[in-house]
Amino acid sequence: MPKFPVRALVPVLALAALGTSACTPLRSHTGYVVDKELIDSIQPGVDNRDSVLRTLGRPTLTSQFAEGEWYYVSRDNRNMAYSQPKPTDQLTLRVRFDAAGNVTAVDRSGLEKVAKVDPYGKTTPTLGRHRSFFSDLFGNIGTVGAPGTGGPGGAPGQ
């Protein structure tokens, strides 16, 4: 039986280890770091804006339409090598306040609220005419100053 050189085995094993490590899933966390005990300690009718700020810290974001809402968002992601991260777990905590600044409700939601948006190719679809580069470039020739276009000599009411 021929002897197999040990020196040839080392690079083969190194390449195999390197190849299998590229398939290891990457995990990441973004947003608020959740402490279940602190979240559970926020009680409607008991806490106010200051106590929530001291307990949970600054919110991830505040509502722009209803000024009495604070959001704390926490997300765990997973992806393989160079692929896009996919959410594996999410907690969105919404703390609602009344006009006096007292907590009225604490709502929780998870991955069921995550929306997946698929872009349409490399262009954004628009309604209307499809124009070419040259029609965009030369399309205004002859319309400048024409009646009804608002240009000099063509302003409505003249």
Automatic annotation (TrEMBL):
<dbReference type="InterPro" id="IPR037873">
    <property type="entry name" value="BamE-like"/>
</dbReference>
<feature type="signal peptide">
    <location>
        <begin position="1"/>
        <end position="22"/>
    </location>
</feature>
<keyword id="KW-0732">Signal</keyword>
<protein>
    <submittedName>
        <fullName>Outer membrane protein assembly factor BamE</fullName>
    </submittedName>
</protein>
<keyword id="KW-0472">Membrane</keyword>
<feature type="domain" description="Outer membrane protein assembly factor BamE">
    <location>
        <begin position="31"/>
        <end position="106"/>
    </location>
</feature>
<dbReference type="Pfam" id="PF04355">
    <property type="entry name" value="BamE"/>
</dbReference>
<dbReference type="InterPro" id="IPR007450">
    <property type="entry name" value="BamE_dom"/>
</dbReference>
